[in-house]
Design a protein that fits this description.
Radius of gyration: 16 Å
Distance between the termini: 21 Å
Shape: globular
Length: about 220
C-alpha cells in the first residue's frame, strides 16, 4: 500500500516519556474462526464488543496526546466502546492478504501441502494486490514517525489489527519485521510499549480480561 504521507521535518525524538498503547480490535466472526481478515470490513461479535469495553477499563490512567484508529469498522467500533476519541489513520489498516483473504492457515496449508505462514512465505495476489511483510513494516514505520513526537507530549493509543500491530511492535523495538511471528496478540487485548533506560521496550503485552490458553489463530 503506497502513501504520499510526508515525512516529518525533524527526526524522531530520543527517549520520549510517553507510553504507546496498542489495542487490538475485539473479536469478529472471522477472527474467532482463525480466518485471515485483512481489508474485509466486518463487524465485532457481541463478545468482541464486551472485550472492547473491558479494554477501555484498563486505560483510565493514561493521558493521551494522540489516539489513532484504523478506518475499518472493527477497529473504529472498538475505539468507541473503549471510550477513546480516535482520529482515523488509513495507514493502520491490516495486512492486505490478497488471495489468502478469508482463509485459515489450515486451509492454506492443506492447499499448498506444506507448513505455510504469512511471515515466512508471504501472500499471493487476489481481489486485492496483497502486501509483503516489508511493505506492512514500511506503513508501520510511517505511523511511528507520527507517534514518537506525540509521545513527548503524552501517551499515544493505536487501535488496529493483530498482524499490523505485531509488525509495528517489531519496528518499534528495532527488530526485523519477521520478529512479529514470535509474538501473538489476542482480540481485545491491550499492550504497552515504552522506553526503558533509553531503549524501546515492552512494558505489558497481550493483556486482557483473561489469560490466553492457546496462541491466537489470527
Amino acid at each position: 500500500m503506497l502513501t504520499n504521507d510526508p515525512l516529518p521535518e525533524h527526526p524522531a525524538p530520543d527517549n520520549p516519556s510517553g507510553k504507546l498503547i496498542l489495542l487490538r480490535h475485539g473479536e469478529t466472526e472471522w477472527s474467532k474462526s482463525g480466518k485471515h481478515t485483512g481489508l474485509t470490513d466486518i463487524p465485532l461479535t457481541p463478545r468482541g464488543e464486551d472485550l472492547a469495553r473491558g479494554a477501555g477499563k484498563l486505560l483510565g490512567g493514561y493521558k493521551f496526546s494522540l489516539v489513532l484508529t484504523s478506518p475499518l469498522q472493527r477497529a473504529r467500533r472498538t475505539a468507541e466502546l473503549a471510550g477513546l476519541h480516535a482520529e482515523v489513520d488509513p495507514l493502520l489498516v491490516e495486512w492486505d492478504y490478497g488471495g489468502y483473504e478469508g482463509l485459515t492457515t489450515r486451509e492454506i496449508r492443506g492447499e499448498l501441502g506444506y507448513n505455510w505462514s504469512a511471515f515466512t512465505h508471504g501472500v499471493i495476489r487476489g481481489e486485492t494486490p496483497g502486501e509483503t511483510v516489508e511493505e506492512v513494516a514500511a506503513r508501520a514505520s510511517r505511523v511511528l514517525t507520527r507517534v514518537l513526537p506525540a509521545m513527548v507530549e503524552g501517551d499515544v493509543a493505536l487501535v488496529a489489527h493483530g498482524h499490523f500491530l505485531r509488525i509495528l511492535t517489531a519496528v518499534y523495538l528495532r527488530m526485523a519485521p519477521r520478529f512479529a511471528a514470535q509474538i501473538t496478540l489476542d482480540a481485545g487485548s491491550v499492550s504497552v510499549l515504552s522506553f526503558y533506560r533509553e531503549q524501546p521496550a515492552i512494558l505489558a503485552w497481550n493483556y486482557g480480561l483473561e489469560l490466553p490458553l492457546v496462541p491466537s489463530e489470527s
